[in-house]
Specification:
Distance between the termini: 26 Å
Largest sheet: 2 strands, parallel
Helix content: 25-40%
Shape: globular
Structural class: mainly alpha
Length: about 120
């Protein structure tokens, strides 16, 4: 909910959204990473809702996941020391904007192409 699509495309990153930074989300991300070629870089931006609630995955557990990157893994816009009470994490876009552009921006999709694709998707339901 906090990821800017423009900067995601510009940086060439692969977003992985989860509901909250809880154990099931961490486990699903591990399973996803088990099934793909290892990424050179991993960044984790955690939604900090202010409570060390039941089932939350700890900063240490997320840090362990970051070790799966081939080159580097880091927290993006969140302090693991303050997590889950780092309310500055709502402004993590600055971390995404520091990534050097890795891909050219795609050309804008003409409205007619978008509407055609949407119609095709709706007709399959």
């Amino acid at each position: 909910m906090l990821l800017d699509p423009w900067w995601t495309l510009r940086a060439g990153v692969v977003p992985y959204w989860s509901v909250f930074p809880v154990q099931p989300s961490l486990e699903k991300l591990h399973r996803y990473l088990d099934g793909v070629e290892a990424y050179d870089h991993l960044q984790v931006a955690l939604f900090c809702h202010g409570v060390a609630s039941v089932g939350i995955a700890t900063a240490a557990q997320w840090r362990e996941l970051l070790h799966r990157a081939k080159a580097s893994g880091e927290f993006a816009g969140v302090s693991p020391r303050r997590y889950p009470r780092d309310f500055g994490s709502f402004f993590f876009q600055h971390a995404l904007r520091r990534i050097e552009p890795r891909r050219p921006m795609p050309e804008p999709l003409p409205l007619g192409d978008f509407l055609s694709a949407a119609d095709q998707r709706n007709s399959r339901r």
